[in-house]
Specification:
The complex is a heterodimer of chains A (306) and B (274). By secondary structure, chain A is of the alpha/beta class. Chain A is built from 10 helices and 16 strands. In chain B, the strands form 4 sheets. A 7-stranded mixed sheet of chain B has the order 12-11-10-9-13-14-15, with helices on both faces. In chain B, strand 4 and strand 5 form a beta hairpin. The chains are: A alpha/beta (306), B alpha/beta (274). At the A-B interface, helix 1, strand 5 and helix 8 of A face strand 5 of B.
């Protein structure tokens, strides 16, 4: 049974990808994730200058998943270039994740980080909890998406994926803007919200930044609907992300139009070998249904509509 | 009908039950709760609107949790203003523990600074199993030696070293440990403290082919294996989950052990070899 997948020119042995912001801080951490079955990895997002991020608590879990407000802690582009070297033998394709405060900065990031050994680039226009970036900087509109995508496109030949927010609606219009500006694919979706959890002994919000992006199972049905909408709006490939915990969830996202899925929060509930587990569960499903390859059910939901 | 909720990680607010001054710079904060942790594990403490930080567990028995904490920065300065009855958040225990091996007859424990805390708990568990314990405690000077009262009350062979000779041997605790390793036969060596001290102990144990367990402390945010801040160069293993206690042989294969650690941004800071 073949669970390899193609996302444009990118070839993956299996459709599970480490989502950005989870582990992915160092070359060694990527190797650890690949050895647990990931088909590809996205590094933790890099900015031009070093960022310490928000004070802790940065992450808390709850019945529906997780809230996080890390605030893009990263060592900055110069140290990141030193860190992410010799990527051709870590175990699979590595996607760079870049952030910027405006289109010009995204262009600079592409120039400075990407001439390394990355297989592709994921540009994040959708963080809901870092002032100056993502939706807090208005990057979620079709106009802003077009500007940023063009700025990166002019600086790199690598496959370019734009990661968008479930809160940018109608989401199909945002995806169309990215496609028209030269993106090779869409990553849908980032965390939603932001949300807030309050400690009732003290009345204090638990996250130091008070609010944070919501990921995990609560996000999944929203992510599935967003991918469904985006598939109807654009032709370019979609990487699905948002609450994928089991093989069933990965299959569901592929049925509405994704060709691969990113996994993050599920590392908490299922362990770092969640990638191997999800691949096994996809194979078991395909066995049961008599599918030979992923294309047999990718976009099935749309095909049924005729 | 009640259906089970999934388990999740949020701080549990606990009033400080007691505060004990250990040395001029270290206090033990007690809470009326028992976490049933194992020596070497840690908890994460939250002070609302300040920060959240990991601390090793010094006491976790008889319905009391004790955390021995040095005043070193913004978080601990705030904590040192707290009085009995004030609420802080605790979550955990997290991480891999020190483990006693079946059939051990004599073990060597080497601690420095607050690394002594988990080793003291380990020592009392070893004594309860009839294992002979050599315990090395080192510090720069007498007033910085931690848990001396607690250690002196135990039936262990206690070996003290201070850099200035104000108590015990004048010199490094690692030299004392090396001499003991040369003289006696040990089943396992356990070490917790400043990383360059740990590295010397790990290497000395390896030369004698004695198994070793070492606690590798790294900056961490989540404590449950998600954020990646504590991944080691070499294996990428997470010191909050697959550590902090690892085997000495594993530590020796990790390229950053004894060399550098990463701060909140991921920027590398190299250990200052003296």
């Amino acid at each position: 049974m073949d669970i390899s997948t193609r996302i444009g020119s990118l070839k993956l042995e299996n459709p599970t990808i480490l989502a950005s912001g989870i582990l992915g801080v160092s070359r060694a951490s990527l190797m650890h994730v690949f050895s647990n079955g990931a088909g590809a990895c996205v590094i933790k997002s890099i900015s031009l200058k070093e960022r310490v991020g928000h004070h802790a608590p940065n992450m808390i879990t709850y019945e529906g998943g997780m809230l996080n407000a890390v605030g893009y802690s990263n060592p900055g582009v110069d140290e990141a270039r030193e860190e992410f070297k010799e990527l051709n033998n870590v175990g699979g394709p590595v996607l760079a994740s870049i952030i910027g405060q405006n289109a010009e900065e995204f262009g600079q990031m592409a120039e400075k980080l990407l001439p390394g050994e990355f297989s592709a680039v994921e540009a994040v226009l959708s963080c809901p909890h870092t002032p100056g970036y993502g939706t807090m900087a208005g990057q979620g509109t079709p106009k802003s998406t077009e500007e940023i995508t063009k700025a990166i496109r002019s600086k790199t030949q690598l496959p370019l994926f734009i990661k968008i927010s479930p809160d940018s609606q109608p989401i199909g219009e945002v995806a169309k803007a990215a496609e028209a500006a030269g993106a090779d694919g869409i990553v849908a979706v980032n965390t939603m919200g932001p949300g807030m959890i309050v400690d009732i002994q003290t009345g204090q919000p638990i996250l130091h930044f008070k609010v944070g992006g919501v990921s995990g199972v609560a996000l999944r049905p929203i992510a599935v609907r967003c991918i469904y909408d985006i598939r109807k709006a654009v032709k370019i490939p979609i990487i699905g992300v948002g609450g994928v915990t089991t093989g069933r969830d990965a299959v569901e996202m592929m049925m509405v139009g994704a060709t691969a899925v990113e996994i993050g929060t599920a590392i908490y509930s299922r362990g770092i070998d969640v990638f191997a587990k999800v691949s096994d569960e996809i194979r078991a499903f395909m066995q049961e249904k008599g599918y030979k390859k992923l294309e047999d059910f990718v976009s099935l939901t749309h095909k049924l509509e005729g | 009908m009640e259906r089970p909720l999934h388990p999740f990680e949020q701080p549990r607010m606990l009033p400080i039950a007691d505060i004990v001054q250990e040395t001029e710079n270290v206090r033990t904060f007690f809470f009326a709760v028992e976490l049933h942790s194992k020596p070497g594990q840690f908890v994460i403490m939250w002070i609302p609107r300040v920060d959240e930080k990991p601390f090793s567990i010094a006491y976790d028995e008889d319905g009391k949790l004790g955390l021995s904490i040095a005043k070193v920065g913004r978080f601990t300065e705030k904590l040192f203003e707290y009085k009995k009855g004030d609420l802080v958040g605790i979550r955990g225990p997290y991480g891999s523990p020190f483990t006693l091996q079946e059939g051990s007859k004599r073990i060597l424990l080497v601690g420095g600074g607050y690394g002594v805390a988990p080793l003291a708990t380990l020592a009392s568990q070893a004594l309860a199993r009839g294992i002979t314990v050599d315990f090395c405690n080192g510090a720069r000077t007498k007033t910085q030696l931690l848990f001396m009262k607690r250690l002196k009350a135990m039936k262990i062979h206690l070996h003290i070293a201070t850099d200035d000779g104000s108590e015990g041997r004048k010199g490094f605790v690692t030299d004392v440990a090396a001499e003991l390793l040369a003289k006696n036969s040990y089943d396992v060596v356990y070490t917790c403290g400043p990383e360059l001290m740990e590295q010397k102990v790990v290497n000395a144990a390896s030369e004698k082919n004695v198994p070793c367990q070492v606690s590798i402390e790294r900056y961490m945010k989540c404590g449950f294996g998600i954020c990646g801040a504590c991944c080691l160069d070499g294996s990428g293993k997470r010191m909050c989950l697959e550590g902090p206690v690892v085997s000495g042989e594993f530590a020796r294969t990790q390229s950053e052990f004894g060399k550098f650690h990463r701060i909140a941004s991921g920027h590398k800071i190299f250990f200052d070899a003296r």
